Amino acid sequence: MKIVKGLPAIVVFNKESSWVSCQTITRNLLKAYEKLWGKEGFNLFFMGDTREEHWPLAQKVWNSNPSRVVFLDHYPHPMEFLMALNQKYEGEELPELIFHVYGDFTLYPKEWLSLQSILKNTQVKFVCASNKQVDLVSKFLIRPKTRVERCHFPSDVTKFHFSRDKRNETRRQLGLRDDEIAIIYSGRISLQKNVEMLMQYVVNLMMRSPFSIRFFVAGPFDDIGAPFFGLHFEKGYAYQRFQSRLKMVPEEFQSRMKYLGNLNTEDLHGLYCAGDVFASLSLYHDEDYGMAPAEALMCGLPVVLSDWGGYASFSGDERDCLLAPVDITGSGLAVSGEEFFKHLFVYSMIDHDNTSLRLARSERAAKRLSVDAASNLLRDMYNKPIPKFDGFSWRLKRFSDAFNNGMPFPEGPKWGTFYEEIYESYTKKTKNAVEQKKSEHSKRGYAQMEI
Amino acid sequence: MSTQKGATPKWRYELVDWFYAHQEAEQSKITRQAHPDSQGFINFLWPASNKYYSPLNPVFVSELFSPEILERHHVWQIRDGLVPLMWFFKSTPEPYLTRQKLLIDSSFSPFVPTPWRKFCGTFEVESDKSMYKGKPEQLLFLGLPAEAYCSLEKVEEYLEKIVDIVGATRIRSMKKLGFMVGKHFGFGVQDNQSYYPEFITLMGDYLGTKNFEFLNWNTFESTVSFTGYDVFDFNEKLLSADSYLMHLVLQKGARLLEGWSRKSRSTGGELVRLSPHHLMRVKETLTGKYALSNPRSSSKGADQYFSHFESAMRSQANLGMPWPNWAMEWSKTIAIENKPVQLRTKPTSQEFH
Lengths: 451, 353
Known about the structure:
The structure holds two protein chains of two kinds.
Chain A: E1 9-13, H1 20-37, E2 43-47, H2 51-63, E3 68-71, H3 79-89, E4 96-100, H4 109-114, H5 116-119, E5 124-128, H6 131-138, E6 148-150, H7 164-174, E7 180-186, H8 195-208, E8 212-218, H9 237-248, H10 251-254, E9 257-259, H11 265-274, E10 277-280, H12 291-298, E11 303-306, E12 321-324, E13 326-329, E14 332-335, H13 337-349, H14 355-369, H15 371-383, H16 394-403, H17 418-423, H18 431-444
Parallel strand pairs in A: 1-2, 1-3, 3-4, 4-5, 5-6, 7-8, 7-10, 8-9, 10-11, 11-12
Antiparallel strand pairs in A: 13-14
Helix pairs in contact in A: 1-15, 2-3, 7-11, 8-13, 14-15
Chain B: E1 14-15, H1 23-31, H2 39-44, E2 58-59, H3 67-70, E3 75-78, H4 82-91, E4 101-105, H5 114-117, E5 120-127, E6 138-143, H6 152-166, H7 168-173, E7 175-180, H8 195-207, E8 212-214, H9 217-222, E9 229-234, H10 244-251, E10 255-256, H11 259-262, E11 270-273, E12 278-283, H12 300-314, H13 316-319, H14 323-334
Parallel strand pairs in B: 2-3, 3-4, 4-5, 6-7, 6-9, 7-8, 9-10
Antiparallel strand pairs in B: 5-12, 11-12
Helix pairs in contact in B: 4-14, 6-8
C-alpha cells in the first residue's frame, strides 16, 4: 500500500485478535473510518506484538508525517510503539493520538502510567464504546472532560439485519413451532457472564408463561473465572459446570433448553432472526459495550439486559431494550431479579413474528449502532479541538499498585471497597444507592460532599 | 435475598454468588498438589502436564501421595505414561485402595499387575463422532520434542501413519500448525542435542515445509477456536498418557486425527463428555490378564508386551529421569500399611515378578 505523507495514520494489530468480537469491532471501526475519511484518506499501519517490530513501524509512521495517529485495536498495547515513535520525534511534539479503548483498559494500568510523560505534551483523546465506559476511563484521568469521547463499536448492517426467510429457515432447523417463544443468549459462557442465573429466570418464565418457551445458548465456554477477585478456574470447568446446572433443571424444561455451540457469523445471524427475545445478565468487569446485544438489536430482536457497563447504552426506547438494575452491595454484586423477570415476561408476550415490528426495530438499531452511525459520531468528535493531555489521576497509580499482586480486588466486588470506587460507574445510580451513600458520607463527617 | 444496605430498596435484589457456589473448582485445585519430590517430573512435562477440570479427576500418581487425598473421590484418572505407572506398581505391589477406581490409558491395560486389576479401569480420549464429516483440511501438531516424550523412531512411525490417513500429496499443500515446546536438558552425551533438528527434519520430510506455521504459547492458548483442525500429539505415552494441550484444542473444536482410522470401531464402555466436541470412553474393568506374569511365555501377544515393556525401560523416559528416587518417595507416603519394596537398581522385566 502506498504511503501518502501528511494523512492520518491508523494502526491495527498485524494478526487477528483472539477475541472474536474484537475481530469484528476492528473490521467495522475501520469501515467507519473509511466512510469518514475515504479509503485513500489515511495510511494503514500494522503493529506486531514483539519489541523488534515496533522500531521499524515507528520509522514508517514517522516517515509518513501523520497529522494524527489512531489506534483501533485492543492489543498489543501501544506503549512500546509510542516509546519508539517518541524517540523518532526527538523531543518535538507528537501528532494527535487517538486511542479506541476497550473493556481491557483496566488490564494495563502500568503501561498507561509509563506513557504519562510522553502523552503529557501531546493532544490525546480516548474513545470509549459506551457512556459508562466513558465514566470509568474518566476516573483515571485528570480533567477528563473533552478528553474522553464515546463512539460505539459498530455493527455491520449487511451481516446483521432482520430477514423473514432466515427466520423461517432457522426456526425450522431448530424445530421451533410457530407458537413457541425463543429466548436467546449468545456470547462467552463464563462465570461473570452469569449464564447460570439467566438459566434460572428462563426456567421461571417457562413455569409461568402461557406460551411454550424455548431457550437457546450459543458461544464458547470460557474458564477465565474472576481473576480480579482471585477466582481462577481450571480448563474445562465452565463446560462441566454448565452441564451440571442444566441437569438440575426439571426434565420437562431441560428438553426445552439447547446449547448450539460456538456459531459463525452467518449462523448467529440466523439465530437472532429466529429468536424472540435476547437476554443477558452479564456482570463482567470488562463489559464496556456488548456486541451480542447490539447485533441482536440489528436483527430486530428486543433485548433484556442487566444494567451494567456498556449494556446501558442500548436503553432509551422501551420497545427495544429493558434493563434490570444492578447494585454493588456489602455482600457483592446484586441484580434486581424481579425486574429482570418482569421484563423478560413482558417481551415474551409481544408478537415477535410480526415482520413490520421487527423491521422497525432493526431500522432503529441501525440508526444508532451501524457503521454509518459510528462514522457520524467520529465526524463530530474530530470537529472538536483535541486538548493536550493533563495526565492520569492518582486512581490509576493506586490501581496499578493493587494490580501488582494480580488480584486488585481481594475483598470481591463489594460496596465500600476500591472496586466500588472504580466500577460504580458501571451501575445505575438508583435513588436508594444515592441516599445510602449520603448517609454513609454523613457518618464519615463530610455530609456536604456531592455524590 | 435483599441487599444489605440500610434503606429499603426500590427493587428486590438478588445477590450474585461467584465464590461459594464454585467450591468444587477450588477443591479440585487444592486436591491436586504434586509431591515436592516429583515436581521435577511435572515441570518437565509442562505445559502438557497442566491441570484441567474433569469429573474423572485427572491426576498424576505422584499427586495422590496421601491417603486423605485419595479418599476424596471414587474415581481417579491417572495421567501418567507407562514408565511412572510401572514404577508406581513396583513401589506399591499391594493395592491399598478400598473403594476407588484408577483409570489408566486403555493401551496400558496388559501391564497392570494382577493384584491391582480389580481396582483399575481404562480411559480413552475421543472426538465426537458427528465431527467426522468430510476429509481432514487443516492439521495441528502438538508435542514436547524430547527423546523422553517421543523417540525419533516413534516420530517416524507416527508420521507414516499420518501420511497414510491424509495422503502423501495432499498433506504437503494443507495448512499445518504446530505447537512444540522444546525440552533441552544440557550438553551431556545423554542429552542428545541433535534430537530437535532431527525431529524438525523428519517433519519436513514427511509433511513438507510449506504452509507450516509454528505458534507461540500466547497465541496458542488464547486462540478461541481450532474448529476445522485435525490434531495429532507426538507422544509415545511413556511419560504421560494425557496431555493438557490435547484437551485444550479438542475443547476448542479440533478433532483427533487418529479418529479417522478408529472411528468405525465400537468400543463400548461409558462416554463422559468433557466439552461439546470431545469425550472420554471409560471402562470400569480391565479385560484380559496381566501380560508380564510369565517371562517364559512363548505366546505371540506376550512377546509383544514384553518387548514394549523392555523398550520403555531402556528409553530416555526411564533412564533420563531419577525414577527410583521418585518412586521411593511416593511409596513412603502412599502405602501406609504395606511396606514399600526396596529398589536397588533400575528394574528389568524379571524384577517385576
